[in-house]
Amino acid sequence: MGTQLQAESKMPLHMYESAAHANVGRPLEKLVSRSAQILCILGAIISLLLFAWLCYSLFAALSFGVLAQTYHTSAEVPADQLQNYRWLQNLHDNFWLNMPGIIIPLGASLILFGRFYLAARTQLYICSEGLLTIYRKKEEAIRWDDVREFYLLNGSVTQLVRTNKTRLLLPFSILGASNKAGDQAIIAELMPRLLPPALASYERGEVVSFRDLQISQQGISFLGELVSWDNLGAVAWENNELSAYYAKEESLDGELNRQWYVWQTKEHNSNTTLLSLPNLLVFVALVNEILDRQHEHKDNPPTPQPLTDAKESVENNSSNTGGNAMETHIMWNFLAGPGMEHLQLVEDEGGIVADGLIIGIEQDIRFRLWYRLQIDQDWHIREYSLQVSGEQSQAAYLLSDGQGHWTDADGNAYPDLDGCLDIDIAHTPFTNTLPIRRLELAVGESMEIQVAYITVPDLNVRPARQRYTCLTRTESGGSYRYESLDSDFTAELTVDEQGLVIDYPELWQMV
């Protein structure tokens, strides 16, 4: 039969000339095990026997009804028919009591046989371009290049998610059936396509998100619990459990071991949580690739570069970008308590990269916050990566189109943040620079804006209304009034010629 594929699947027709032959595409193993076939056959036999018994019981009950009209009591029954009368009477009296014992096994047997029948008729084909399933006479195809996520259960691939978020559910195995060849073939096609982009994101300093599992430059976090790279040797996904092999043997019985054990036994039922996460094999491969690179770096550390050579290297890099790259290092001292910040700001023709590290205390929680912001030439924030470590560990990563629309790494939209062109991270004065540089207000001019406000150390984000008013402007800087419209907080900020905060009364002071 000719395979007609829907246009939206974008699957070339020549992939599958015929679903009935293996000359195009490769048929995979049957989804029903030998033991399942035997059980299903036994179920069919039991179903027939139970059905026969049901019919016999019904016939007996009806027969007794006829006899009961002839003989009103057992005393009226002739002696040669008395035994048969009592047998029929017993079946009649217990007919409804016997029904559950017949109907339930009969229904279970029919369901089991039905699943066997459907699975036995399932066809699954694969080639280098994609996959085709034929299930209940319905054909559905997907291209490998169109897959963004895949999910696992007991080592089997259960569903594939396209870039447009539509899903292809794969026929499932039953009763111990093995489809290892199919799973291995699917995974072998997807891993080379999904792993390199994830590795590239990590190398750019971004937080690579697998929903509740996240990978950052600091380590791995699951539901806010961080395990640093220095304490990891390898990770593995086996029997629906995420396992860690530690870098040091003595740590197996220590705090680290307990922390990973908590991942699998929390009240939220982590097995269910882990099974709902996408691309777990990509996560495992990415973590182990990062660890391998770190181990190679430790085994073969680079030779320290002399200061004179380092200076020449910086000059060479500057010349490669047209000599327009400008790097600035700033430090702020936190005035309201223990804490300080270091910021590395790099500006070139492609935009601005802000890399900051904050050490502080919030509500008696000691924390270290690392942030990295990608900003375009017009000072629109395009993406941010945040990582908190300390007594509480969190990670966050969001993308912006520069027009006030935000998504996470999986493409999920954050409609609550629509219209937020800037972000405001608590515990840093740098994010005040974003609207100051973007708005370029004239003296006396005021502008009300909406920002994505990020609290520390929990990294929760919410929209917040603010107002900036330009008070003075000089060649060496200026001053601005900042107002939080969701509260009564107001401050007058003094900035330098780059718009960086010099003095934030009672909170920050540039060092």
Using brief descriptors, characterize the structure shown:
single chain; 511 residues; alpha+beta; 4-stranded antiparallel sheet; 9 helices; 27 strands; disordered N terminus
What does this protein structure show overall?
Residues 295-323 are annotated as: Disordered. The chain crosses the membrane at residues 36-59, 95-118. Keywords: Membrane, Transmembrane, Transmembrane helix. By secondary structure, the chain is α+β, with helices and mostly antiparallel strands. It has 3 domains: 34-122; 207-296, no CATH class; 327-510, no CATH class. The protein has 9 helices and 27 strands. The strands form 5 sheets. Strands 20-19-18-17-16-15-14-27-26-25-24-23-22-21 form a 14-stranded mixed β-sheet, covered by helices on one side. Strands 1-2-3-4 form a 4-stranded antiparallel β-sheet. It has a 4-stranded antiparallel β-sheet with strand order 8-9-10-11. The longest helix has 37 residues, at 34-70.
Range of helix content: 25-40%
In this structure, how is the largest beta sheet organized?
A: 14 strands, mixed
Summing up helix and strand content along with how strands pair, one would put the structural category as: alpha+beta
Radius of gyration: 34 Å
Give the overall shape, derived from the CA principal axes: elongated
The number of distinct β-strands equals 27
Strand-residue proportion: 25-35%
Average pLDDT confidence is 74
Total separate domains: 3
* Uncertain ranges: 1-32, 173-177, 249-273, 301-322
Strand order of the largest sheet: 20-19-18-17-16-15-14-27-26-25-24-23-22-21
Number of helices: 9
Q: How far is the first residue's CA from the last residue's CA? A: 76 Å
